[in-house]
Amino acid sequence: MMFTVNNATRTALSALALSFAAAAMPAVAQAQDAAPAPAKWFKTCSKQEDSDICVVQNQLVAANGQLITAVGLITVEGKVNRKLLQVTVPSARLIPPGVLMQIDGGKGTKLDYAVCLPDRCTAEIPLTDAIISSLKKGGEVVFTSINFRRAPNPIKIPLEGFTGAFDGEAMSQSQAEERQRMLQEAMQKKQEERNKAITDAQNAAKQGN
Fold first, then answer.
1. Structurally, how many domains does the chain consist of?
2. What's this model's pTM, rounded to 2 decimal places?
3. What is the b/e burial string over 70-95, where b = at least 16 CB atoms within 10 angstroms of the residue's CB?
């Protein structure tokens, strides 16, 4: 999703993209009006070519199942060694402001956009020990992007469970696949409930006329 420098960095992004469910990004502007579902931190690891890749990640999903914001801490070790913090937000963003990260209302850190696609934009910065320490100590992190109307769009993600995910064991491949399946089913159920509510409201309005 992000890097084009070499195969190892591309594989890191591939691991991240699996859980971010890029297909869920369209119509996210409307999704932001809906109450988001609770977000949870989890870690996946895989071996790609000569590198070990681990991604500690989280995604905030709206009540209708649409992805609002995704964040991933990517560690690549082996033939290539690199650590990155990436944040994916909806498209139609102003590029120069980037994404502002604030932990517990502290001083903001700017993430510059690395790429924008029709359905999403991804910003990144090097992942440092100081950032990791602040996330472990924090209670919440807020990522603020600026939409094309020049309006700030702050998205809050709780940091509860971050330390356990970062320091703990990674999910197995089967666990990651099961988590993704359950997420997709929950998203589909919420969308069906939303569609039914709209249909019921329309039918009620017709009967009232």
1. 1
2. 0.72
3. bbbbbbbeeebebbbbbbbbbbebee
